[in-house]
Amino acid sequence: MSVEKNIQTTGLLGWIDKRFPLTYIWKSHLSEYYAPKNFNFWYFFGSLALLVLFIQIITGIFLVMHYKPDAERAFWSVEYIMREVPWGWLVRYMHSTGASMFFIVIYLHMLRGLFYGSYKNPRELIWILGVLIFLCLMAEAFFGYLLPWGQMSYWGAQVIVNLFSAIPIIGPDLALFIRGDYIVSDATLNRFFAFHVIAIPFCLVALAVAHIVALHEVGSNNPDGIEIKDVKDDLGRPKDGIPFHPFYSIHDLLAVAGFLLIFSAIVFFSPEMGGYFLEYNNFIPADPLKTPPHIAPVWYFTPFYSMLRSTTNEFTWILSAFSLFGAFFVFIRTKKSRIYRFIISSILILVSVFLRMIDAKFWGVVIMGGSVVILFFLPWLDNSPVKSIRYRPAGHKFIYFIFIVNFLILGFLGTKPPNNLSNLISQTGTIFYISFFFFMPVWSSLGTFKNVPKRVTFYRY
Known about the structure:
Blueprint: H1 11-17, H2 22-31, E1 34-36, H3 45-64, H4 74-83, H5 88-116, H6 124-146, H7 151-163, H8 171-179, H9 186-218, E2 241-243, H10 244-269, H11 302-310, H12 313-333, H13 338-357, H14 360-373, H15 378-381, H16 394-414, H17 420-438, H18 440-443
Antiparallel strand pairs: 1-2
Helix pairs in contact: 3-5, 3-9, 3-10, 4-5, 5-6, 5-10, 6-7, 6-9, 11-14, 11-16, 11-17, 12-13, 16-17
């Protein structure tokens, strides 16, 4: 049901509506926006992501009031916040806990999109904007990671920035530009502070607004993957939809209450979470002359860090063979045009050659970055005739299960010092992660699919 823009209101609200479409926005995005009536637990995380973004912005503002972006003072300004500023310890712990909770919420939100095919037509743009938000969030976390100027912050930033130097030709200059100096120093801290406090938050808020507007333009997906706009009543309202407000705005308060209970428990009783949320080495001032025995990023980066670390010279042989096999597979098994198959196969053959000609460090960076970039293409990789996992074959559910377990294992191994066994497991996990997306056009169309009902349901098949 479309909302008329010429809404007649009186008084102060009428005065505002003549100059700003306040009532129209309220009705089109809340009170008269019809969402599917079969939302379940998985649909809490979009609202929770907005809540955590709000928490991070508010706590960040209060932290900036006392933080000093100076290599000589940064660490001690954080200590001052923790020890001297009234309730400063609470604000700092809320911000550090919020960073990890943000990623937990976003990962679960993306997992729901994967389960229910929320990236498929007509929601491709919503998914792309969501992946852009994820990339911005990763950049925001990375830039903020250096600001406490502790040992792990300093050396973690040193390792990550040095990765850019592995890019052929432009790498060394690019790394120098990011650091602003030949080592991670005061110039780096100031650059990262500017990005973390000003540039990236603006991008995050703008993308979040665009994400919501795009979502409300085409309508929300649901666990059945049915377009509720296809069946409407005489007034043009979806028969399987209910107004977002008050039904889901009240409904989401349950998720907010549960989230705040967990969030508060972590903040007050275990803000470090055993060193996963706040590393113990980060309570030691940064020392450029003393390297920690084991350098690892925060847990939400560790799956991708595992892929980076597993890419050794020996592993490039396996990747080269994998690329050749992929070229053969694309040319023989795919049903695209001959020109398309020839181009993709040629690219994969060239990749297999370059894998042995360029340093493995570069390919580690490519795999780490590509493991995120590949998410942009998910709407065109999935050839399943249905959206929801409810109506897909059991084999698909098993593949999703292995994918999730594999991602968690990669994340766990990324927090541990490397050894031969963990490297072997990480390399196997990297191959599976790549294969999941690379072969998705084939496996997503295999098997016997269940019939999708014409109306939404409230039970699982």
